[in-house]
Amino acid sequence: MDVVKQMYFLIIVLICLFVLAGCSQNSPKSKKVLSYQENSEIIGEEKEEIIGEISDTMYESIDRSNAEAEEIVIGPLPREGEEITPPEGRYSIGISPEDYYQSGRVLVYDEEDMLLIEALVDGYYGVSSITVDLNGSHTVYADGIDELILIPEETNSSNELTAGISEVGKDIEPGNYSVVTDWEYGMGYLEIFEEGEQPQVFEVLIDPLEPDIDVELKEGQKVKITGWNGLYTLQFEPQF
Question: In what order do the strands lie in the sheet with 160-162?
């Protein structure tokens, strides 16, 4: 789904859920409303619309040695945008944090032209970069910005994940977590993918983030974070 359409879709989902919640005060609550109210989870048609078609490469686990990865700077980008197929590796892809005035898109496609992830890169309303694994056949396309920067990223397990796609067991340990954030505002989606299983989608709406989102992360799962209005990182607090 186009990133701008995602923003409008998120607003529509919020309105619909609030309407449903109000109507349900005098009637048994639907499964959709309960899932959202209890854990900010989106299910049903709304979830399918957010996820769209899933690239098979979502479930791949690449070599994280970054043996062939290299820093790449492309610019100035033409009006129609530009694409590149970087060597295999884990990359931070975006704009320089100092270039907050830029606003554009970054899209990553697999070799079948299936979209893996799309992000709004913007110093005010989006994120400055996303972090994602590229398998050597992925194509990165960008438009609307002056310069695109790809920087190889080392793998360090952490309880803080940034916008992009992370792998459980490499970027974060498996376990049960409460998802929290230090950001004062922002919105976006947290999506969890496991091969052979239905993806999960959680709405992240910070003003503040209440209640916390509770998730179980399993070895090999992929965690996708997309955000706007400054939502760049999420913290995962272990549950004991």
Answer: 160-162, 233-238, 175-180, 213-217
CB atoms within 10 A of CB 24: 15
Give the rounded distance of the alpha carbon of 32 from its chain centre: 22
Longest CA–CA separation in the chain, Å: 61
Is 213 in contact with 179 (CB distance < 8 Å)?
yes
| 183: its two tokens | 């950001």
Instruction: Write down the pTM of the prediction.
Output: 0.86
Side chain identity at 72, as an amino acid letter?
I
Which residue type is seen at 139? T
Peptide bond into 28 cis (omega under 30): no
Q: Which residues of 37-75 are buried (b: 16+ CB within 10 A; e: fewer)?
A: eebbbbeeebbebbbeeebebbeeebebebeebeebeee
d(CA 118, CA 116): 7
Geometric angle at alpha carbon 179, from 192 and 23, rounded to 5°: 85
Q: What local confidence, expressed as pLDDT, does residue 100 receive? A: 72
Please write the tens of the pLDDT for every residue from 215-238: 999 999 999 999 877 678 999 999
SS3 (DSSP) at 91: strand
Choice among 69-73, 158-162, 176-180, 182-186 with the minimum mean pLDDT: 182-186
Place of tokens 């998730």: 215
Separation of alpha carbons 119 and 232, rounded Å: 11
What span, in angstroms and rounded, lies between the C-alpha atoms of 52 and 49? 5
